[in-house]
Amino acid sequence: MHKYEKIWLSFGTVSLAVFLLILLVSALHGGHSPAASGIETIHPEHVLDDERFANPGLYESDDPDYDYDLYFVASAFRYDPAEVEIPVGSRVKVSVATTDVIHGFQITGTNVNFMVEPSLVSNYTYTFNHPGEYLVLCNEYCGIGHTDMTSIVKVVE
Amino acid sequence: MANTVREKIGVVNAKDSKLVLAHMIFVIIALALGGTAGLIQVLERSGYFELPSWISYYQVLTLHGVVLALVLTTFFIMGFQFAAISRVCGGLTNTERRIGWIGFFMYATATVVAAIMILLNEATVLYTFYAPLQAHVIYYIALAVLVVGTWVSATAQLMSYFRWKRQHKGQKSPLLSYMVAINNVMWYICTIGVATSVLFMLIPWSVGWVETVNVSLSRTLFWYFGHALVYFWLLPAYMVWYAVLPKVIGTLGFSDNLARMSFMLFLFFSIPVGIHHQLTEPGIDAFWKSVQIVLTFMVVIPSLMTAFSMFAVFETYGRQQGAKGLVDWFKKLPWTDSRFVLPFIGMLFFIPGGIGGIINASGQMNQMVHNTIWIVGHFHITVGTPVVLTYFGAMMFLLPHITGRQLTPALNKMGLFFAYTWALGMTIMSAAMHFIGLTGAPRRSNFSEYGGHPIAETWQTYQIVQAVGGTFLFIGIMIGIVLFIRLMTSEKTGIVEEFPVATFMDENAPVTRFVENWKFLVLVTVFLVLVAYTVPIYQMLTEYTVGAKGFKLW
Fold first, then answer.
1. Angle formed by the axes of helices B14-46 and B454-489, to 10°?
2. What mean pLDDT do residues B160-172 have?
3. Neighbour-count burial of B350, counting CB atoms closer than 10 A to its CB (0-12 exposed, 13-18 middle, 19+ buried)
C-alpha cells in the first residue's frame, strides 16, 4: 500500500471512530436515542376507543420523568386536537396514533419529528422551553389533502 | 497476456450494441419525462402556478420519482453494464444476448404499464408506495416484473463474466467485469426484500385475497432494498471513475486492487443499513436502529478510498504534464473534455453530498431533517448530480461508440454547456432545499401557506429560488436531450469513438486474497444482513399487531 494511502485511510478510520463515539455518548449520556423507538401496539380501527385517544389533548402525568402527556390523533387530513396550550418549561411525552395511513408528525422549530404508522403508537418526550406558536404539520405524503393536516402548539407563560 | 487480448477486442460488437442502444433510448425518454415533471413540481411549489384539475401534484411527483429514480437509473445501469461486459469480455454469446433481450422486454413493458397506471391516477402512491395507501394491483405487478426483468439481465451479464473466467483460468478478470458482477450480486440480494413485499404482501392485499397488510414489515422490506438501491445507482458511476476516467484523461489508474477492495466493501455495507431510513419510526428498538447506524458509517472507508484513488490519478496526470507545485496539477486537467468534466463536476457535488449523508445517518441529527425538503436537496446532489452526470459523461462516448460515430468537437462543447447548466441549476435548487429543510419545510408536499403561519411564510422566498434553480436544470435537460439525439444521429466519418478502459499502475499484481472468492463474498454479505435484520423482522412478525386495511386517499 502507498504511504499516502495509508495516512489517508488512517485519517478516515480515526474520524469514523470519533463520529461513532460522539453518537454513542450523545445517545447514552445525553439521552438522544432515536424518536418513536420501541413497540407499543394499538388496533388501527379502534384508536378512538382507546381512552388515551378518545379525547386527545394535554393531561398531567403521574410519571416523575415528565410533567404532561400530550395525545394526538392523526387521520387524513387532520390532527386532533387542532390547537393545544403547553406551559413553558414543561417536559411533555407526546404520543400519536393514526386511524388510517402513515403520517409524519412534526412540530416545526423543535426536535419533535417522527413517523406515525397504523397499529403502533409513536412516543417522544421533549421539553418546551421557548414560548411561541408552533406549527404542527404532516411530513409524510398521506393523500391529496396532505398539506391541510395542521395543528398549533402554543407554548405559554 | 490478458492485456493484449483485451486490446484486440476493444469494441462492443454490433449485435450487443443494439441491446445497449435500446436501453439508452429509454434513458433519454425518461430524462425528458422526469425532467418535465420536476419543472412542474418546482413551479407549483413556488406558489405562482396552479396545476389543471385533471392532474395532481402528487401524480406528477409519483411520475418524477418512478421515471428518474427507477427507470432512468435501471435502464442506464443495465445498458452500461452490458456494454462494459461486452467490451472487456469479448462480446456476449447468442444465449447471453437473448437472455439480455428478454430482461429488457420485461422491464420495458413494465415501465410503460406503470407509467400508464400513474397517468390514470390509479397509483398516486409515490415511488416508495408505502402501505396502507393502496395502488391498483397492476401497478404492483408492473413493479414486480420490472425487478424480475433486472434479475434476468443481471444473470446474462454474470454468465458472461463467469464464462470469461472459465476460459482464462489463472488470469485476473477484467476489472469492469468484476465490478459488474459485484453490483449484480448486491442487486440480487437486496431486491429479495422489495420482491417479497410486493409479491407476497402488496399484490394479494390489493387484489383482496387478504384484507390487511403488516405496515412495519412492508416498510422494512422496502428499505432493506431501498438503500442498497442507492449503491446500485452509484456503483456504475464508480465503474466509470475507476476504470474509464484514467484512460479518458490519458494516464494509468491508481490501483486495480484498491478498486476491487472498495467494491467488495460496498457489497458488504450496502444492504444491512436500510433502517437508517426508518430511524424516527415506531416498531423498531433503539438498539437495532443504532446497530444499523454503525453499519451505515462503514461506507466512509470505501468512499474515502475512492476519493483518494481519483485524486491520485488526477495528480499523477498533472505531474506528467509538467506540474511542479502543490496544486498546479489541477490546472493541467483536461477542462475542455466533456467526458472528464461531466463526471468531475459530479465528484465536486459529492463532497457536500457525502457530508450531508453523514449528517442524515447520525441518529440525532436525522431527527432534525427527517422528511424535510433537506433530504430532497441531499439526494439531488448525490444521485441527482454525481451519479447522473457521470452516466451522462459515459453516454458522451458510449452513444457514438455503439452507433458507429464520433464525439465531434461541437458535440463535446455542447456536453460542457450541459454540465455547467446542470451544475448551476442544481446548486441554486439544492441550496434552497437544504436551507428551508433545516427550518422544517416538509418534502413531498404541494404548495401550502399552512394557514398563514409565519414559519411557512419564511419558506416562500426559498421556494421561488427552488423554481429558478429547477428552471435552469430543465434548460440543461433540454440541452442534454438534443445532445444525446445528435450523438446517435450525426454523420458517420468512418472513425468509431473509443470506449476507454484504463490499465492500472498495479496491472500485473495478483488480486488480493478473498476479494474475488464469491462464496466468501456472499457469505459475509448474508451474515451481515442476518446480524442487522433478524431481530427487528422477528419482532415485527411475532409482536401482536393488527394489519392495516388499504386506503385510496388521492
1. 150
2. 95
3. buried
CB B343 within 8 Å of CB B240 = yes
Write down the domain spans for chain B: 2-542
3 state SS of B415? helix
For the stretch A68-73, contacts whose Cβ atoms lie closer than 8 Å and that sit 24 or more positions apart, written own/partner, are A68/A92, A68/A93, A69/A93, A69/A95, A70/A94, A70/A95, A71/A95, A71/A96, A71/A97, A72/A96, A72/A97, A72/A105, A72/A136, A72/A151, A73/A47, A73/A48, A73/A97, A73/A98, A73/A99
Which one of A139, A144, A149 would you mutate to disrupt binding with B, by most B Cβ within 10 Å of its Cβ? A139
- The CATH number of B2-542, from 1.20.210.10, 2.60.40.4070, 4.10.910.10, 3.40.640.10, is 1.20.210.10
Note whether A78 and A24 are same-domain residues: no
Cβ atoms B443, B371 nearer than 8 A:
yes
Residue B3, C-alpha cell as written in the block: 492485456
| B334-348 per-position pLDDT tens digit | 999 999 999 999 999
- Write out chain B residues lying below 8 Å of A35, CB-based: 279-280, 367
Could you give the maximum distance between any two Cα atoms of chain A, in Å?
Answer: 67
Chain A residues with beta carbon closer than 8 angstroms to that of B300 = 12, 15-16, 19
Contacts of A16 in chain B (CB under 8 A): 297-298, 300-301
Asked whether the beta carbons of A119 and B216 are under 8 A apart, the reply is yes
Whether B455 sits inside 8 A of A108 (CB atoms) is: yes
* d(C-alpha B303, C-alpha B163), whole Å: 30
A65 and A98 in a single domain? The answer is yes
In a domain, A13, yes or no: yes
In this prediction, residue B234 carries a pLDDT of: 97
HEC assignment per residue over B521-541: HHHHHHHHHHHHHHHHHHHHH
Judged on CB neighbours under 10 Å (0-12, 13-18, 19+), B535 is middle
Q: Does residue A21 lie in a domain region?
A: yes
Name every residue whose Cβ is closer than 8 Å to that of residue B10 and which is 6 or more positions away in sequence: B87, B498, B499, B501
On whether both A101 and A58 belong to a single domain, the answer is yes
B553/A145 touch (CB, cutoff 8 Å), yes or no: yes
- What strands, in cross-sheet order, belong to the sheet with A103-107? A83-87, A150-156, A132-138, A103-107, A113-116
- What mean pLDDT value characterizes chain A? 94
Co-location of A56 and A114 in the same domain: yes
User: Locate cell 437473448: which residue?
Assistant: B98
Cβ within 8 Å, pair B308-A104: no
C-alpha dihedral sign at B239, B242, B244, B249: positive
Cβ contacts from A onto B, under 8 A: 210
Q: What is the per-residue pLDDT across A6-36, written as a single tens digit (0 to 9) for each?
A: 888 898 889 899 988 988 888 888 778 889 9
pLDDT tens digit string along B58-111?
999 999 999 999 999 999 999 999 999 999 999 999 999 999 999 999 999 999
Of B401, B353, B405, B398, nearest in space to B374 by CA: B353
Residue B18 has which C-alpha cell?
443494439
Do residues A96 and A133 share a domain?
yes
The total of structural domains in chain A comes to 2
**Residue-number span of the structural domain to which A137 is assigned:** 47-156
